[in-house]
Amino acid sequence: MVSRKLVYNSHMTTKEKMKLITRNCQEVLVSEDLKSLIESGKTINHYIGFEISGMVHLGTGLMSMGKIADFVKAGVKCKIFLADFHTFLNNKLGGKWEDIRWASEHYFKEALIASLKCYGLTGDEVEFVSGKDLYDNHPEHWQNFMEIGKQITLSRNLRSISIMGKKQGTDVNMATLFYPPLQVADMVTMDINLAHAGMDQRKAHVIARDAIKKIPGNHQNPVAVHQNLIAGLTAPARQLPSSASLQEREESLKMSKSKPGSAIFVHDTPDEIRDKIKKAYGPPKETEFNPLLNWVKTLVFWGEETGELKIERPEKFGGNVTYTKYADVVADYAIEKLYPTDLKNALTDWLIEKLAPARVHFEIPENKAALVKMRGLLGIV
């Protein structure tokens, strides 16, 4: 698998751009607005923001950066927001400014560039912006923040703190309440018309679409694109009630950098990838909530019905087979014509090859040193 350099095709139709922008996504708020934005001929200003909270796993590295590759191919102007202030508000990395800012510039940004390389990009196609730089260079930001704050009720703000990974009803400090309006104000200050995140950020984007149109000024109301969340590799910690929504189930199973064994990181070695996949939760015949199948669907097939998954195994176990339809993978898994071991081996091979450019990036001496230091900050031996 060779990562090919992506080239923007300026002759794409609206339909072709819509497909690129929305594929492998769970939701678009709303499709009609996205179509109008494309047809308007305006520059599509995209942003996705990340807290600097830990190592970059596949949910960020392959899912989010893979979507950015789609956006770049569709001619979208992409921006990655390194949310240092938000990281501080959420008390990540101990809430230490010096660690947050060092990690943002020397580890996190480099890990995202490494991930972009897995999709044939170099990193130069994307603009990286830190919270500090944005706020220092745009004094109007704090007025935007206050204008947005005036449009959000306290009760709604409290309901939205789930975007920080906190449950509703949690006792929070005053600074925590700054987070949602600050996130929306970021979009205003950066003049964003395409907001991108996982489904876990939906509440922030709904607030943005409601609040931005109410504040003074001719501000763009962003379309929101929510990518699929990828499952963690470990078994669910608890059984959710049958009444739980699909979104609640998916979020309970999502990959987390704070759950040991649930995540593969973009710079993991081939041996680390093999070991984690070997231990992954993947019951035979289970096709509904199975991380192995989730990864095949969202990463290998990139959310499409067709793609390619190669299974290599001895003849006595069925012999080699190449799947070109995801439905066939699921059907064979359900009847044990395709075994968990088969799927684990295929995923392992695919990931080792896909992540090769990221491993090369972290062989650069300064990046290798940054990875060692980041592990130290996180207490990882």
From TrEMBL:
Pfam families: tRNA-synt_1b
GO molecular function, one term: ATP binding
Lineage top rank: taxon: Bacteria
EC nos: 6.1.1.1
InterPro entries tied to this protein: aa-tRNA-synth_Ic (IPR002305), Rossmann-like_a/b/a_fold (IPR014729), Tyr-tRNA-ligase_arc/euk-type (IPR023617), Tyr-tRNA_synthase (IPR050489)
Keywords recorded for this protein, A-Z: Aminoacyl-tRNA synthetase, ATP-binding, Ligase, Nucleotide-binding, Protein biosynthesis
Stretches the record annotates as Disordered: 240-265
Family membership: Belongs to the class-I aminoacyl-tRNA synthetase family.
The protein, known as: tyrosine--tRNA ligase
Origin species: Candidatus Shapirobacteria bacterium CG_4_8_14_3_um_filter_35_11
